Amino acid sequence: MVAIDCVVQVPSRIGESPVWDSRTQTLLWVDIPEGIIHRFVPSDGQHQQIAYGEKIGSFALRESGGLFLAGDSGFQIFNLDTGAREILYHPEPTKTMNRFNDGVTDNQGRFWVGTMNDNKDARGIAAEPTGRFYRFDADFTCMPWRDNIYTPNGMTFSPDGKRMYFADSSPERRTVWMCDYDTASGTPTSEPAVFFDTRVVAGRPDGACVDSEGCYWMAGVGGWQLVRVTPQGVLDRIIEMPVEKPTKPIFGGPNLDVMYVTSLYQGLSDADLSKQPQAGCVFAVTGLGVGGLDHVRFAG
């Protein structure tokens, strides 16, 4: 039986980018606008908040230790224990209206991330499609890939790494695409094709991950849902959530069979919050009957 438990009852304005550290058995995530890195130890309930001082869109664990993150100052290396940081490169130094959003490593440890317009329209959505996807390699070189993006999300890879998924959360698009991916060069090799049109479910596509069976799990932001889609693009399961705006699922736990889900409360009215007091908190979903894949660390 599927069970959903609120495991961290400290709400984030925009909780995002959950990453499971299998070496330390800890969960990390960020509150994007508050610039806070959260670290949670499920075994004893310890929860730490690290004030970073700038917006952080997403991050990856580094193979050599610490974090590789995408923040307002650009791509950076951060030592969680000492607080030391090194700014490497910003691909959009003049696009001050943009910020980083969803990011993920491919199976070879390259980091893919998207930018988005941080100016919002009346619905709280990116006002213009000024975003772009980037690939950051282990040698610290950066390659732009695809532009004309409102809100980049849903980035993840198939278990064999040969298919790349990405999404645009904007109500105008609310679509997940897929393309073939060359693992040797880190290059998409086919024109993106529609994988899943989220107009058939309640929520728009936010963060995502794949499970060990190759199915795509999507947070249905605005829809109170987690959605599982088969590799063939067929809607498979819907898990109802206790919050309207889940933001990203990730598998964790000793057996990688616990799905942790971040959420947000930004933009919700007092009336909304009275109906979902756990908005912005972190949840653990168990009993799914399937496990996930270990986090691939940034190779640089």
Walk me through the topology.
Elements: E1 3-8, E2 15-21, E3 26-31, E4 36-41, E5 46-51, E6 56-61, E7 67-71, E8 74-78, E9 85-89, E10 98-105, E11 111-117, E12 133-136, E13 142-144, E14 152-157, E15 163-168, E16 175-182, E17 187-188, E18 193-197, E19 204-210, E20 216-221, E21 225-229, E22 235-240, E23 246-252, E24 258-263, H1 270-275, E25 282-286
Antiparallel strand pairs: 1-25, 2-3, 3-4, 4-5, 6-7, 7-8, 8-9, 10-11, 11-12, 12-13, 14-15, 15-16, 16-17, 16-18, 19-20, 20-21, 21-22, 23-24, 24-25
Distance between the terminal alpha carbons, to the nearest Å?
A: 41 Å
Low-confidence stretches: none
One letter per element, helices H and strands E, the order comes to EEEEEEEEEEEEEEEEEEEEEEEEHE
**In percent, how much strand structure appears in the residues?**
over 45%
Major sheet summary line: 5 strands, antiparallel
Q: Helical residue percent?
A: under 10%
Q: Whole-number average pLDDT?
A: 97
**Overall 3D shape:** globular
Classify the secondary structure makeup into a structural class: mainly beta
Number of helices: 1
* Total strands: 25
Cα Rg: 17 Å
Describe the structure.
The protein has one helix at 270-275; strands spanning 3-8, 15-21, 26-31, 36-41, 46-51, 56-61, 67-71, 74-78, 85-89, 98-105, 111-117, 133-136, 142-144, 152-157, 163-168, 175-182, 187-188, 193-197, 204-210, 216-221, 225-229, 235-240, 246-252, 258-263, 282-286. A hairpin with a 4-residue loop joins strand 4 and strand 5 (46-51). The N and C termini lie far apart (41 Å). The chain is an all-beta fold. The mean pLDDT is 97. Strands 14, 15, 16, 17 and 18 form a five-stranded antiparallel beta sheet that branches. Helix content is 2%, strand content 48%. The chain has one helix and 25 strands.
